[in-house]
Amino acid sequence: MSIHFKQRTLLKPVTCSGLGVHSGKKATLTIKPAPANHGIKFSRTDLPCSPSISAKFNRVIDTSLATVIGDEGSIVSTIEHLMASLAGLSIDNALIEIDSYEVPIMDGSAGPFTSLIKSAGIKIQSSPKFYFVITKPIKLISGDKSVCVFPHQGYKITYTIVYDHHLIKTQTYSIDISDQSFEDEISKARTFGFLEEYEHMQHYGLAGGCSLDNVVVISEKGVVNEDGLRYKDEFVRHKILDCIGDFSLLGIPILGHIIINKSGHAFNHAFLNKFFHSKDSWETRTLNEVD
Catalytic annotation on 38? Predict the structure, then answer.
């Protein structure tokens, strides 16, 4: 993993606009630098007093179609790709101002957000960076779904997906996460769905911003998108992207090996709750304190 002893934020604000994949509504967001120990927070600038919502697992209010956080009546939806970019580039502190309730889907990956953050530059702050250091395994298992984390000196994710489709079948991908490996191997993997689901959601107005420009659509014959896949195993890589975004809601990064089988947003967040309450299985330390 990338070794960072100090907290990090952006050097300057950066802005982008796009459509929400579920709402179809245009949103403009600005990622701003924030002071040490601020964490990641969203501010709804379209609402009176621009209410703030901390990007923490205990603010998650829905995981049915995407990760949604909320506080006192204000919400921000579909945060996982942006959160993955912030975590993947080791950004600890940022204020995200957004003028709608859904983060733009961009191209369906974290690539555009990653490029945007890099264009701002990164500022090293004076305060030390803390990590969850795993001391004992933590496991959540339900049927064929499982999320487990084991002691490890870096940040590693091994993910397995299984789909009854000849293009996917069983895919497993394992990666040591660093700023560079995230950008090169994970950030550009797009969200995906099956043609019948895509058509159903469009018919009932459930995916107003969904198109072949931001979703990999799979039919019985194969990938519908003319440009095909960005990676041969883009599907499992995107699941890792979502995992990085979801796990970032713990507030500080993990030093551990996360092994996941057939999970999704809802099961990821069930694990985060178990993780946080398994206080005998981890310690929070600065990197200077890690053996």
Answer: no
Give the pLDDT band (50/70/90) at residue 289. Answer: low
Same domain, 122 and 138: no
Helix pair angle (265-276, 234-247), 10° resolution: 40
Angle between the N-to-C axes of helices 111-120 and 80-88, in degrees from 0 to 180, rounded to the nearest 10 = 50
Quote the pTM value.
0.95
Take residue 134 and report the two structure tokens written for it: 């795993």
Token match 């299985």: residue?
Answer: 281
114-124 tens-digit pLDDT: 999 999 999 99
Q: 1 in a domain, yes or no?
A: no
The whole-angstrom separation of Cα 253 and Cα 286 is 11
**What distance in Å separates the CA atoms of residue 99 and residue 29, rounded to the nearest whole number?**
7
| From 203, 265, 269, 277, the catalytic residue | 265
In three-state secondary structure terms, 37 is coil
Q: How many domains are there within the chain?
A: 2
Q: Which two tokens stand for residue 246?
A: 């979801």
